[in-house]
Amino acid sequence: MQKTRHQIRQDVRQLRRQLSHQQQHDYSHQLKQQLSQHPKLSNAKQVALYLANDGELCPQPLIEWCWQQGIKTYLPVLDPINEGHLLFLHYHANSPMKTNKFGIAEPCLQSNQKASIDQLDVIFTPLVAFDHFGNRLGMGGGFYDRTLANVSHTDKSPYTIGLAHDLQCLPKLPIEAWDVPLPEVITPSKIWSWGSVFKPEDTL
């Protein structure tokens, strides 16, 4: 019997929370190493990332690499007006931060620090699980699904990439009509693109 979305969330979240501190450290640096050569970052000026929570793959080394390259980074912030949606605020080493209702740190809301969706070159999203077809299972709040539903996938739209541990990959997820699939998911060891998987060295 196929697991429900709720069961999958519980199981995968437990697995990633069991990763050791050293494993998390190593995987986050492997992620940075892969993405430092990614073609979508070579000309990027503004990208959205996230701060790791609940055992998520940590992009902090990637964030710091972006700063070194002069790429502006943005973090998701719960939209106080449009409930259930995300805003993206500029994030730097001295950003004033607060904790949102989910216990996740986010930049303090300042309108002059906000980037609209079409100003971002790449949006890196966290996820709970993904499958071989690019389907993404989030935490259940639908924040990224609602936000990414506004991405038109034209040449001028941001490119969306999911970030996950290898253990978060499943052959096939149960999906819903509102789910927004990802064109690409990157794990510490692989790059998954439109359902096909290849190692980073295959792209060089």
What does this structure look like?
This protein has one domain (5-203): NagB/RpiA/CoA transferase-like (Rossmann fold). Strand 12 and strand 13 (191-193) form a beta hairpin. The protein contains five helices and 14 strands. The chain has helices at residues 5-17, 21-35, 39-42, 60-68, 143-148; strands at 46-48, 72-78, 86-91, 97-99, 105-107, 114-115, 122-125, 129-131, 136-137, 159-163, 169-170, 184-186, 191-193, 196-198. The chain has 204 residues and is α/β, with parallel strands linked by helices. The chain starts with a helix and ends in a 6-residue tail after the last strand. Helices cover 23% and strands 24% of the residues. The chain is globular, with a radius of gyration of 16 Å. The strands form three sheets. Strands 6-3-2-1-7-10-12-13-14 form a nine-stranded mixed sheet. The protein has a three-stranded mixed sheet with strand order 9-8-11, with helices on one face. A two-stranded antiparallel ribbon has the order 4-5. Its EC number is 6.3.3.2. This is 5-formyltetrahydrofolate cyclo-ligase.
